[in-house]
Amino acid sequence: MDKAYSPRDIEGRLYTHWESADYFSPRGLGAAFCIMIPPPNVTGTLHMGHAFQDTIMDALTRQMRMSGRNTLWQAGMDHAGIATQMVVERQLNAEGKTRHDLGREAFVARAWKWKGESGGTISRQLRRLGASLDWSRERFTMDPDLSAAVTEVFVRLHEEGLIYRGKRLVNWDPVLLTAVSDLEVVAEEEAGQLWHLRYPFEDGSGFVIVATTRPETLLGDAAVAVNPDDERYRKLVGKKLRLPLTDRLIPIIADAYADPAFGSGCVKITPAHDFNDYEVGERHGLEKINILDPSAHLNENAPAKYRGLDRFAAREIMLADLAAAGLIERIEAHTHAVPRGDRSGAILEPYLTDQWYVKVAPLAAAAITAVEAGRIRFVPENWNKTYYEWMRNIKDWCISRQLWWGHRIPAWYDAAGKVYVGRSIDAVRASNGLAANVALTQDDDVLDTWFSSALWPFSTLGWPKKTADLATFYPSSVLVTGFDIIFFWVARMIMLGLKFMGDVPFREVYVHGLVRDTEGQKMSKSKGNVIDPLDIVDGIDLESLVKKRTTGLMQPQLAPAIEKATRKEFPRGIEAHGTDALRFTFAALATQSRDIRFDLARVGGYRNFCNKLWNAARYVTLVTDGQDCGLRGEVELSAADCWIRSRCSFAAAEAARGFADYRFDLAAQALYEFTWYEFCDWYLELSKPILQSPATSAAALRGTRQTLAQVLETILRLLHPIMPFITEELWTRIAPLAGKSGPTIMLAPYPLASDFPRDAAAESEMRWVMDFILGVRQIRGEMDIAPSKRFDVLVANAGERDLTLLKSHGGYLERLAQVAGIRPLAAGEAAPQSATALLGEMKILVPMAGLIDVAAERERLGKRATRARAELAKCHGKLANEKFVANAPPEVIAQERGRVADFERELAQIETQLKLLAELR
RNA sequence: AGGCGCGUAGCUCAGUGGUAGAGCAUCACCUUGACAUGGUGGUGGUCGCUGGUUCGAUCCCAGCCGCGCCUACCA
């Protein structure tokens, strides 16, 4: 074995082996366990969020697979309507073309071609991460059978009246030229202005003042509203106003929507361009005057002067005209939320169009009940509040998109514009008695990507066919997701799963935090703080990293700042850490927190852990390979052997608990600590004196060798879900030594706490041994005695147990404490001038002659005395409090009394010692 | 405006109604025969602030300060 762990050499080889051996497919005899991967965008590349999430899913999947469950991690990808279409359009733009130059059919063909080229990227990256997805079942949301599921759901919902088509205001993206759902709107506070405009009375007797942030919309005004309770304006209701810049007259109406406290108390009502105004317009039967075309240029309903102008150009000219007419009362600075499209970044317009909607309320009611009844459990549980909050206020879902890439809406129109919904054009003709010669044209729109995503838990398993897979794997066991898509995806899967499968799509939803950079910033290309997870795995030099971060920016002017920050943060680029170290880091970072600040230093620490494990295995191999490991023959276990076996049982319990509670951080920590601090730091060292002593019996040799191999083999299995590669590599070497066999660690059983016996006696015995060693080390460390310096240690005041333990463990003590010899003081023998450590009643003495400076030892003891006195005072304070003694549970009081005794003894001994030092000076 | 969350060592984070922990960083010593990606021993915290409940609060409750996220928004 090499001296250092080198991940690069093994990762690719092992993954290929696993996949070709078909280890990822369901095979366990136990109950089904299923996770549906949140399908990544087909043309996407792996980012830190994916890597984190997929590590968690893989860890769960591997742990369950090892535990004998019939385990499926469903693979697949999403067609990502808008995102993919934008990418392909950008490619076309680079060629100087638009999608309209190609036409729909050719454009869609081009998108498929791009899917074919780029669609493999992310699955290759997932393989690098060690993700044990069942690739043989990989699905794509636009596969024929998944598309059929989409159509089926659409048609059935339509038949039940839960999908309808209607003309109403939607959030319109004038750049992408499509409607988007409420969820795709991001409203950010932006600095703007509030224009206070004068609307003159028809009779010229004055004016009212209205305020607006979008003055150009006045061309679509249908009224001005005042509050019915507003004394100032009550008399004006019904009067007519002359709408500026037009020749139209609009009425003053009374509506509670107008807030008397805001501005003048008068509000302009533009039913076709504002969601609130739309409602007011409906109440008052106002005309909806649409003044914009789809690209947000003013249309034929605007006065000729402004017609054809972009909304913002028109605004400037109109403001100038208003100013010239003396109709601007004042202008004030005003910050307000501006709605932008989450993909395009364009300012959205409320726009009057025909769209398809899902009537959500009935679906939401069942979905709320499912969570309330505990049929779905959120982890951490608090997320159900967020879920309820949204579900109880949910509005109808606009599902049509004016795009070309996606599932075409299964609706056809005849010449008269009558709409027919059906599974196919033939089905439509058949069920409506339409002859073949009746012209039908299909709806041009496609469905929101999230519509097909919502079906993912059952469409991937063959629905609407009643398949064996559906029977086995639906509902899936757990959904692993970020809170950012609870509304987009989780809620909709629950609604449609309940509707079409009659059961929840998953039993639990594990909601993890979002990966951010060290500063807590969201990682994004434009911020230039993105880290490619595979660059952590393979390493990347600084120049390549700078280049990666600064090319292809939407705003190239940011490049210098990004370059500077990158050079500062990673002066030497990023070292290679290997997949396992990255995965372990993700597991360790998987706390319940919402934000996960990614810290590269931590990966370094866990890379070291990999190396530690590697070298532990190297040692175990060295001392056991070719030796008798007790697989046959008599075996005798030492106290140390029993101790580490007992500790291993605890570690297995901790790991199991961590996995069961989705506390991967705690599982990772428990395994890290057991492996490093107990197995490596102590047990491997304890094994050396045993294995090297000529006095050790053959049975005891077998016992220790067997324990080394068995505990290490168990550690490997415990760690495998988090660190699949190194554990597999080492397991193939270690398993035979531990008497285990099998083709792969992947299918070896996950360890149980009951695999090793708990042994309280051995634990207490070894506690004594370790405390002894620590006591001597502490003196050595604090007294600056060179590690190479051997000295004799005396013990005083040793009890019977101390003497027994001293006798049986002398070998460890001398070796691990690096001392020449240990001997109890004879009866009546005077202790030489010594530095001391305490172990219960017993004193450990390190004679000072030639080793220790009196002043230094006095200082050291003084420090300890101070600490002990402070603790003692606290304990005394508590015990002096009558109420404490009266109310605290007896075991707490007993514990407190015990502490008093301990500290008092320690203090007394320290003081004796100090006095001794003073006398001998 | 409503909802949710956070504030613990220099940094990133665990944690518990009764001795405050880890990783990284830091200091000292050490090329000991698994590992310098290592070993040994240290340094470092009035657990955001103020009250309350309690025998006892970093933990529970209330208020405040600071920070963040989500939802809905006054034109």
Explain the overall architecture.
It is a single chain. With 921 residues, the chain is α/β, with parallel strands linked by helices. The chain is built from 30 helices and 28 strands. The strands form nine sheets. The chain has a four-stranded antiparallel sheet with strand order 5-4-13-15. Helix 16 links the parallel strand 21 (476-482) and strand 22 (506-512). Helix 22 packs parallel to helix 24 (698-719). The longest helix has 30 residues, at 890-919. The protein starts with 6 loop residues before the first helix and ends with a helix. It binds one RNA strand of 75 nucleotides through strand 7, strand 11, helix 11, strand 24 and helix 21.
Features:
921 residues; alpha/beta; four-stranded antiparallel sheet; RNA-binding
- Please state the structural category: alpha/beta
Number of strands: 28
Label the overall shape.
elongated
- Radius of gyration, whole Å: 37 Å
Percent strand equals 15-25%
The helix count comes to 30
Q: Indicate the low-confidence ranges by residue numbers.
A: none
- Main β-sheet, spatial strand arrangement: 5-4-13-15
- Mind summarizing the main beta sheet? 4 strands, antiparallel
What is the CA–CA distance across the termini? 56 Å
Helicity range: 40-55%
Mean pLDDT: 91
